[in-house]
Amino acid sequence: MVESSEVRVVRCGGSRINVAAPVISVDSRFLLCASGDLVKVFSTSTEEWVHVLQGHTNVVTGITLNPANQLQVYSSSADGTVRLWDFTDGILIKVQNAFQNAYPGLFTHHCPHFPPECLQLVAAHVPKTLEQEVEVRELSSVLPNISPNPRAVGFGREVRGWICLDTSCTFHLLFKLIYKSTKKGAKNTFTCVSCHPKDDCVATGHEDGKIRLWRNFNQKKEYTYTTLHWHHSVVNTLCFTPEGTTLLSGGIESVLVQWQYDRNSKYILPRLGGSITHISVSADGSLFTTSHSDNKITVIQSNLKVSAVIQGLVKGEAVHTDLVIDPRSKALVLNGKPGHLQFYSLQRDKQLYNLDIVQQEYIYQEGLDQYEVVKAAFDAHGSCLATVEERGKKLSDTEITLKFWDYNETAQSFVLNTTVMTPHDNRITSMCFFPTAETTMVVTTARDGCFKAWLLGQESDTEKQGTDGPSWSCDFVGRYHDLQPTNCCFSADGSLLAVSFQEVITIWNPETWELLTTLCQPPGNIKDLCFGRLSCSRYLLATTTKNMLCCWNLLTCSLEWSTSIAVTLLKADPLSENMAVFTLQKEQTDLFVFKPCEPRPLFTQNALCVGEVQRAIFVPREEPLDNCDESSLWLNRSQLYCLTENMVRFTARKHAVIDDSVAVTPFYLLLGKHRQREQEMCGLPVTEQQGRAQLPQGSVAVRELLHTAAHVLPPASFLCNMFVKSLLISQTGSEKEEEESEEEMDSCDAQQDRRVQGLGVETVPLISKAQERELKKVRRTDYSWLSCLSDS
Amino acid sequence: MGEFTVHRVRFFHYMPSGICAMAFNRRTERLAVARTDGSVELYSRTDHFFQEKVVPGRQQRSIQALCWVGKRLFGAGLSGEIAEFDLDNLRLKFSQDAYGGPIWSIVCNPQGTHLAAGCEDGTVKLFEILEDQIRFERNMGGQKGRIISLAWHSSGTKIAAGMIDMIKVFDLDSGELRSRGSRMQQSQECVVWSVLFLSDIIVSGDSAGKVKMWDVNTGTLIKNHQVTEWDVLTLSVSQDETSLFAGTSEGTVVQFQLLDVVLGQEEKEWVRTRTFKNHTHDVIALAEADTVIISGGMDTQLVVRPLLDKLDFKSRDSSLLKILFPQRSLVSCAKKAGLLLFQYPTHLELWRLGDTEGHGPPGCILPVSRNPEKLLHLKIKGEDHVCCSAVAPCGEWIAYSTTSGIRLYRLQRDNKNVSITKVPKLPKVLRHAHQLCFSPDSSHLYGTTSSAVHVVALTSAGCKFEHSLKPNSCVEPFGNESQEISDGKFLASANSNSEIHIYNMHKLKAHCTVPVYRSGVSAMGIHPETNNLVIVHADHQIFEFSIEQMQYTDWSRRVQKEGLHHVWLERDTPVINVTFNPQNPNHVILHDSYMFCIIDQSLPLPDRKSQFHNQLTLKSLPEAERLKHSHAFKECKLYQPLLCVDMLENQSLVVVERPLLDITTNLPAPVRQKKFAT
Fold first, then answer.
1. What SUPFAM superfamilies does UniProt report for this protein, alphabetically (chain B) (predicted)?
2. Which among B262, B272, B307 has CB closest to A222?
3. Which residue, B484, B402, B418, is CA-closest to B58?
4. CB A340 within 8 A of CB A357
5. Does the distance separating the beta carbons of B226 and A263 come in below 8 Å?
6. 3-state per-residue secondary structure call for A714-737
């Protein structure tokens, strides 16, 4: 295919900003933090991002200011390069292929820097020369078995010593001071270390919440240390201020503690959110930043006042609620902080706001059962929200609450309407809203064997009682043979409700609550269920645990086709007939996009990413694109976002998105690329948002040209030439163009994170002829079995 | 190990009293500890803090300060008198009124020639120390305000005095006030509980919870450490003045160290380093002994905390030591009559043990057919406290001694009535005894003084002095500490120099002496059948000495050759008592505060590698193999803390327990502290 390269995966955000300690620029105006493959430059006063330093092809592991020029920053990455940036302008200055697998590259002034390869501490002696680039030859191993945590290495005053904690809980100092924390029963394992900038004093944090200040290292018989104890559990990070007058510590309690160095007094700043993972201090000591486990960076002034909060996408232990799109704000909704729903803007990679669902004070304590938001669903207009929260690991003490929320126009937020305590006796497995606006109905299925329909009460009923609005109540309880329901789904027009009970799918009429028919395709329980849309609304698709993807025709009540693939996720586009299927094969996820009525997939993408795609969603575009290309046609009305967990690098998840916004037409492709490249050359930041805002209304490519500001356009001669070329349709020409675009995209590597070569549609037909034959056979046998069932 | 009927006694309400002053003598390595009941205890540092001597207390005597001058120990208290203790005869040598009201503090100058006492009337009184007394020399100061604490500069020319809200420095040559500290606290009164005079600074601990460093010459504050929200009660400094300790009302001991700010450079600074929390109540007294810090306070325990923690191997010197219980027996047991005599400071209690007729499997609780009964509550005449007491094995005689006299009572028991008559006309020589004991047939009473053992014959009519036994080679008198007697024939007596003299009571003359071992004798006993003397020393070495053959027995030689197990040698409380099992002559029963142990002399000794506490593993083994793995030592930790373990004649074991919880509930409430999450 000609434009096969135009559909690609873009990592669009949501990456963790709390992986490495952020760096504050010398003038305290900018805050730099590693975020996935990028280095983001934030303003410390306005909380907005100013620049993005793009270029690394793998996760950035550490950043530090260039000691020679404080306006430059070094960043190290897992791709093995160290890059030098000018962060005020966002320009890449230099790339050094430093070390294979440079772990957290820490750099200091004329001092050994540490790439603890295989977690070994190595000292590199940098000769003092005037040249910029110095080849380091002398590498001496200092210590094996270093803890992988970057906080476990600290630098002493001048180059007298560095301190590190190794995996066997021993504390090493330059002159071989070894302290073994092997007291029986005591939880005094070291967790972090920091050195006083002027005195010979080392602070260590411990697992039992104590901080010890070590002095007098060369004593033979005694340890000389002071114990500071406020934290009740692990001290995560420690940091001395540049003057050495105070010591900052943070732990799991989300409290920043400021210790006076020479006095035994302390000040605390409580309630900062998630537990503190990093603390860094600006060069003049006027600003502190704390990174939190809920993907947040807080900027704090030295008088312990919070001045700014930079919040990324909060990712808890798991995304219990599926990815949901708020129809009103078009924001992605998922559970974030404990007990909250977060509304996250995909375009701006920024959290919009948090909705407190549980409405209880969150207290961190180990082993305490907390309420978790496990399900969330919006109705068609986004005026109603239903949430499910639950607590308790064991069945006997499970507490489930179903809550219904109304959107309040004046408050611009969701307001609680109805709370249903214990809506089901066991865990709720799925929940869906009635798809059209006429009736507001929610169906929940749970493991207690029944599904319930919930209806918003009539206005008249409630007016009599004098309450302030209609409330929700249970309308119908349905069961099927004592089987556990797993999924429920409404057809697009709301005329049918499909509920899957283990192996059986039951079709109900939601108005009369009459069981219409049952469908079954053993073996395997139903894992995912969804109706076709628009022209394919007569189809019902389901995946089973035995790796089958089945499609029933609801008019004939018979199996239309089925195929055997290991489906992990099945998602329907709400605006088109398209379905997306993710499969996991050999640790890699493949994507198929197809229409239920057509045997061949519209689009296939092998090796979409490494590891499993956890969640995915079609997000409707604000303006539909006009794209005639066959393979990317399915992306015209919506984009597909997916959430992955990349186990290879960190246990962080990354957002990958199939995004074609830059590659609508060949013309646009060229135009867009060139413009971006140019802007990059000018040093202007390019954001996705700008590109999208300039999309033409009438979707005519020429209009796009006219709408673009003249000063950012390439020369007219250049444009003309390309425009004409792009209109030519010839086999050879297109191939050449492909190469050309390939090259261009290579050059624009900075813009893209990862590009995957698309494959031709012809290469992988979804169902071969033999399979079709088999399918027919299966259908025949299935029929008899079905009739058998109906007889019984 | 054998089966016994155990009398588990919990009605001895022993209550230790709080520690109020301490002094450590670096030259003799002795620690003197004064308690609130007026008693003074002496511990030997070289002998793992073995309690060597106890000077019994006296009513209304409160000791606020102790001070060593050479080998002499002085004490002073709120009675306003300065007293010297006679450490040989374990009583006061003399006392002299200072005429300045209650004395809060005494110190002696580094040269050991003068004593200074801080008095209620605001004067520092200087006394010259003479051979047998002290002589008043002069007064310093004289303004109103009590002097709480004193410290002498190492040059001997300056004294710092801590008062309420100020510190005064006196120059001894001119007798003038040199400088004074500024007002310590703006809002409320601040008591300087303790001062230290280092070579260049004065350190004070006050009731505002601060440790302050002052400049000597200008009287200005150099550094201020807020240690606690409550009081800093006591301070102590190491001899080289690099380490300083402060004891607080919270029960913590805080260490300060003089450290280089940057390694290898001149600049030094006092930095607060470690905090020890071993007390529940106020730490009132601290003493620094080279590598350990000793603290004592209201919770009555003496805590010895080693400071060197960088040691690779574990030993008795590197582990924390807590001394809570007396290291001598306060209970005497009438073996024939089944009576227990409990010794309290101001009274004695006589109890009859309960009885049972039930039988049951090992470990079960037998039903009591007769409850234990308190027969007698004997109040002490006079102000002195009891120093020793004894009950005769037949239960007819009770004797006790104070520092001023000995009293002997005859007890008559009818069916229900108990009557007591005082035996008159005790011999004049027996005015004061360190130990009292009766012969096994209750016919004689033996009392030891510092120089001799006196024998008194007891008859129903009265008592008659028989003889005074003196050791053969007695060079100078020493306080006799413990004595033990066997079937009337031999009597062994040990003194605090760990010399043991054995007397033949039939011939009424000295029989022999046992070779002197370096550690103090903590307990000994003579076997009733074999006449072997079993001696346990403070370092847990065990010797067996055959009196008849006048040499160590084979078993004792084997113990010395093979060595005792390290678990046994690492025990931190000394053995209090040695008794024997009359049924099995091979069994020796020892006990300390936390266990009792039966040594079976017929079994092999444990070697270094074998498991010491092996009762549980033995139980799991089959009968045949059990003998192969068993060794001589069998410990029982079922009952603790123990004050006494003794065998009665009817084969039952008496175990006197004093649960720790009972002691802690009787203590005054500690200072209130905000605890996290309360």
1. WD40 repeat-like
2. B307
3. B402
4. yes
5. yes
6. CCHHHHHHHHHHHHCCCHHHHHHH
Determine contact, residues B511/B489, Cβ cutoff 8 Å: no
C-alpha A339 chain-centroid distance: 18
C-alpha closest to that of A424 among A441, A443, A405, A440: A443
Specify which residues A444 forms β-bridges with.
A431, A452
A546 touches chain B (CB under 8 A): no
CB pair distance less than 8 Å for A224 and B257: yes
Q: How far is CA A39 from the centre of its chain?
A: 17
**Which residue in chain A has the smallest CA separation from B258?**
A216
Q: How far apart are alpha carbons B237 and B255 in whole angstroms?
A: 10
ipTM over 0.85: no
> Quick check: bond before A242 cis, omega within 30?
no
Structure tokens, A430: 């799925």
Contact of A200 with A217, CB cutoff 8 Å: yes
Task: List the one residue out of A179, A224, A178 whose CA is nearest residue A199.
Answer: A224
Are B273 and A219 within 8 A, CB to CB?
no
Say what the pTM is: 0.72
The DSSP bridge partners found for residue A210 are: A229
- Residue-wise burial string across B279-291, b where 16 or more C-beta atoms lie within 10 A, e elsewhere: bebbbbbbbbbee
CA dihedral B341, B342, B348, B349 (to 10 degrees): -70
| CA quadruple A628, A631, A634, A637: dihedral sign | negative
Phi and psi torsions of A358, nearest 5°: -75, -35
Residue B434 near residue B451 (C-beta atoms within 8 A): no
Residue A670 in this model has a pLDDT that exceeds 50: no
Chain B residue nearest residue A224, CA to CA? B273
What is the pLDDT of chain A when averaged over all its residues?
Answer: 71
| Maximum pairwise Cα distance, chain A | 91
Closest Cα in chain A to B228: A264
Residues of B in CB contact (< 8 Å) with A are: 225-227, 257, 259-263, 271-275, 307-311, 676-677
Alpha carbon of A174: minimum distance to chain B alpha carbons (Å): 13
Q: Is the peptide bond before A523 cis (omega within 30 degrees of 0)?
A: yes
Residue B584: how many other CB atoms lie within 10 Å:
13
CB contact at 8 A, A72 and A26: no
* Residues 6 or more apart in contact with residue A84 via CB below 8 angstroms: A66, A72, A73, A74, A92, A93, A94, A95, A96
Measured distance CA(A202)–CA(A172) in Å, rounded: 11
Sheet-wide strand order for B201-206: B192-197, B201-206, B210-215, B221-226
Beta-carbon contacts of residue B137 (< 8 Å; ≥ 6 apart): B114, B126, B127, B128
Residues A446 and A428 sit within 8 Å (Cβ to Cβ)? yes
Q: Inter-chain contact A200–B273, Cβ cutoff 8 Å? A: no
CA distance A266 to chain B (A): 12
Q: How far apart are CA B597 and CA A80, in angstroms?
A: 68
DSSP string, A239-303: EE-TTSSEEEEEETT--EEEEESSSS-EEEE---SS-EEEEEE-TTSSEEEEEETTTEEEEEETT
| pLDDT averaged per 10 residues in sequence order, chain B, 678 residues | 79 90 90 91 88 86 89 90 87 87 91 89 89 87 83 88 86 70 67 90 89 85 87 91 91 89 80 88 89 89 83 69 86 88 91 82 81 88 88 88 88 82 80 84 83 83 81 48 64 83 84 87 86 88 89 91 86 87 87 88 81 75 75 84 86 88 87 71
Are B15 and B359 in contact by the 8 Å Cβ rule? The answer is: no
Could you tell me what percentage of chain A is helix, strand and coil, using 3-state DSSP and rounding each to the nearest 5? 15, 40, 45
The answer to whether the CB atoms of A218 and B262 lie below 8 A apart is no
